[in-house]
Amino acid sequence: MQETENYLYTVGKGVLRRLLRYAKPHTRLVALGLCVLMVATLADVVGPLLMKTFIDKYLAPRHFPTGQIVFLAISYILLQWITASGNYTQMLLFQRVSQNVIQKLRVEVFTKVQHLSVSFFDRTPAGSLISRITNDTQAIEDLFTSALAPFVQNGVLTIGILISMFALNVRLALICVILIPLFLCLMTLYRKLSFRVFHLARHRLGELNASLNESLQGMYLIQAMRQQHRLIRQFSEVNNAYKRARLRNIKLNGMMLRPLVDIVYYATLILVIAFFGFRALDSVIDIGVIYAFVNYLERFFEPINTIMERLNILQQALVGSDRVFRLLDETDTAPVASNSDKQPVVEVGDIVFEDVSFSYDGIHPVLSNISFHAKPGQTVALVGHTGSGKSSIVNLLMRFYPYQSGRILVDGTPLEDFHDEELRNKMGLVLQDSTLFTGTIADNIRFGRTLDDDSVRSAAEFVQADTFIEKLPDKYDHVIRERGTTFSAGQRQLLSFARTIAGEPKVLILDEATASIDTETEEAIQSSLEKMRRGRTTIAIAHRLSTIQDADLILVLQNGRIVERGNHQELLTKGGLYHKMYLLQQGMRLEA
User: Fold this and answer.
1) Residue 538: what are its φ and ψ, rounded to 5°?
2) What CA–CA distance (Å, rounded) separates 337 from 245?
3) How far apart are CA 569 and CA 332, in angstroms?
4) Which residue pairs from 382-386 have beta carbons closer than 8 angstroms and sit at least 24 positions apart in sequence?
5) Which of 352, 441, 469, 529 is the most exposed place for a label (fewest CB within 10 A)?
6) 302 and 367 in one domain?
7) Strand order in 413-414's β-sheet?
8) φ/ψ (deg, to 5) at 197
9) Closest CA to 465 of 521, 545, 388
10) Which residues contact 157 (CB under 8 A, 6 or more apart)?
11) Do 445 and 562 belong to one domain?
12) Do 306 and 411 fall into the same domain?
C-alpha cells in the first residue's frame, strides 16, 4: 500500500511537472489565456450582484428610473458578453498551446520509437505502441484543454464567489468555507482510488488495439484457415475486459463525483433557506440578498462539481502521460557507435567474426563461438535447420542486437566503432518478406535517398524488375497501397532487390531472399543476383541449397554452432549434415 502511495505521489507530482515543461515555450500564450480567463470569471461573478441591486433597489420598491435601469441592463449584458467572449478566447488560446504541445510530444515519441532496439519490438505488440502514440497523447491533450484551464477558471470563480458571499452574509459564507476541506478529502480519495482503475483501463485499451492490429495484419491467413469465429471470440474477450475496466471507472465516477457533491449542495441549500426563513420571523429580509446568495451557492457548488468531474480527465491524462513518458524513458535503444570520435568507412567489405557468442534473453545461448572470415568480393552462405542461428548472425552484423562476447570486424575495425549511417548505407539487406510502403514504385526504390529517375530505372533494370513495371499504367509512378498486396510475392521481392541495389552497398546480405519467389522467377533473377554479388561481399542465408552452390564458403550451423565449413563440393565429399540436407532436397525434387 505504501509503495502505491509513493507511486501515486510520483505520478501526481513528477509527471505533471514534466508535462508543464512542454508548455514552457508557450508561456506568453498561457499567461494571456489566464488573464482573459480571470477577466471572464470576474465578469461572471459580478452578474448576480447587479441582479441583487435591481431587485432590492428597483423591483421590490417598484421604483423604475429609466436611465438607471437601462444602465444596469446594459452593464449586465456587457458582463455576459465579456464572459462569453472571454471563455471563447481563452479556450482558443489553451487549445493552441495544447495542440503545439501534443504535436511536439507525438514527434518525440515517434522519434524515440525509431531509435529503439529490435529486441524492444520483439516483446512489445505494435498495437500497444500505437495506443500510446495516439490514445495516450490524446489524453494529455485533454489535460491542457479540459482539465488545467477549467481547474484555474473554477478556482478563480470559487474565490470570487466566496468573497461575494462574505459581502452578503458572513455566517453563511463560513459554512461554505468549512465545506472546502471536505471536498479536498473527496478529491484525494478519488485520486487514490481512480489511478489504478484508469491504469487498468489504459492497459486493456492497449491490448484491444494490439489484438485489432494483429487480426488486420493476418486477415489473409485468418480467412484461409477459417479462424474468423475464434478471432472474434478472442477479440470479444479482450473487448469485454476493457468494458469491465471502463465500467469500474464509470461506477467510481458515478459514486464519488457529482452525486456526493449534489448531496452536500442540497443539504447546504436547505440550511441556507432555513436560515433566511428563521430570520424572516424577526426581521425583514431583502429578496435580492436571498436571490444573490442562493445564486452564489449554486455557482459555488457548480465549480466544485466541475473540478470533481475534471478529476476524471486529469487522472486519465496523468495515466496516459505516465505510459508515454515510460516509452520516452525506455533505455533499450538500438546499439550505436561506441566512440563518436572515430568515423571509419566501409570500403571493401572485409568481414571477420571472432568467437562471437550471443543470447537474446541473456540466459539461453543462440550463437556460441562463431568464427569465420568473409573476404572482399566473396560469397559466404549460411545454411542449417530452423533455429540454428543463421538469422542471428545477420542481426548481429546489421547491429540490430549487441553480442555478448567475441569480436566482429569490418575492414579491420570493430563493428561498434561504426556510425549507424555509415554501416547501414554500406550494407544492403534483402529479407525473405519484402516490405513496401505507401507511395509510388519510384519512391519505394529511392526510399528516402536522393536518387534521380535514371538511377531508379537503372536499379530496376539491373534486377529485371522493369519487365513488369513498364506494363503498369503509370509505370514508375504507379501508387502502391496496403504493402503492395496487388503485386505477386516475386514482384514485391524484385522491387526490394531494386531498392537495395540502388544504394550501391559494399556488403550484400540476403536473408533467404529467394524463398518466396517461384522457381521460374528465381531462375530469371539468378543472373541479376550474380551481378549484384560481383565485387561485393555477400552473406547469404539459403534455404534452397541449389542457390548457393557457387558460394566461396558455406557455413553449416546447428544449435548455434558452426559444425561444417567449406565449398559445395568439399561439403558433399565430407558426407556430413550438408550432404544429408542436399540429398533430402534432391529427393524432394525427384519426387516432385
Assistant:
1) -120, 130
2) 44
3) 44
4) 382/539, 382/540, 382/541, 382/542, 382/555, 382/557, 383/541, 383/542, 383/545, 383/548, 383/554, 383/555, 383/556, 383/557, 383/578, 383/581, 384/556, 384/557, 384/558, 384/577, 385/558
5) 352
6) no
7) 367-374, 351-358, 405-410, 413-414
8) -65, -45
9) 521
10) 41, 44, 45, 299, 303
11) yes
12) no
Neighbours of 253 (CB within 10 A): 19
Taking 3-state DSSP, the helix, strand and coil percentages for the chain, each rounded to the nearest 5, stand at 70, 10, 20
Show Cβ contacts of residue 179 under 8 Å, excluding neighbours closer than 6 positions: 264, 268
Q: How confident is the model at residue 461 (pLDDT cuts 50, 70, 90)?
A: confident
- 323 and 356 co-located in one domain: no
On whether the CB atoms of residues 86 and 37 are closer than 8 A, the answer is yes
Determine how many CB atoms are found less than 10 A away from the CB of residue 504.
Answer: 12
Output the CA angle 571-574-551, nearest 5 degrees: 10
Q: How far is residue 402's CA from residue 122's CA, in Å, rounded to a whole number?
A: 15
* 62 secondary structure, DSSP code: T
CA distance 208 to 232: 12
Domain coverage including residue 430:
351-591
Task: Tell me, yes or no, whether 410 and 295 share the same domain.
Answer: no
Rounded CA separation 66/415 (Å)? 91
- Angstrom distance (rounded) from CA 542 to CA 549: 10
* Of 407, 526, 405, 502, the residue nearest 451 (C-alpha): 502
In a domain? residue 405: yes
* Neighbouring residues of 113: CB distance < 8 A, sequence distance ≥ 6: 129, 133, 327
> How is residue 320 written as a grid cell?
496516459
pLDDT of residue 138: 74
pLDDT at 9: 45
* Whether residue 118 sits in one domain with residue 226: yes
Q: Hey, what's the cell of 506?
A: 559494399
Query: Does a structural domain hold residue 5?
Result: no
Q: Is residue 394 part of a domain?
A: yes
3-class DSSP state of 499: helix
Beta bridge partners of 408: 353
Q: Which three cell numbers stand for residue 45?
A: 461573478
Say what percent of the chain tops pLDDT 70: 75
Q: Which grid coordinates are listed for 42?
A: 470576474
Q: How many Å apart are CA 291 and CA 294, to the nearest integer?
A: 5
Helices (H), 23-148: 27-53, 66-114, 118-123, 126-131, 137-142
Mean pLDDT score of the chain: 75
- Compute CA 116 distance to the chain's CA centroid, rounded to the nearest angstrom: 12
The pLDDT confidence band at residue 2, using thresholds 50, 70 and 90, is very low
Q: For residues 501, 507, 512 and 513, what is the CA-based torsion angle, rounded to 10 degrees?
A: 0
Domain presence at residue 440: yes
What is the tally of structural domains in the chain? 2
Answer yes or no: is pLDDT of 319 > 80: no
The values of phi and psi at residue 407, to 5°, are -145, 145
Residue 590 has pLDDT above 50, yes or no: no
Same domain, 306 and 379: no
Q: In what order do the strands lie in the sheet with 507-511?
A: 427-430, 507-511, 537-541, 379-384, 553-558, 561-566
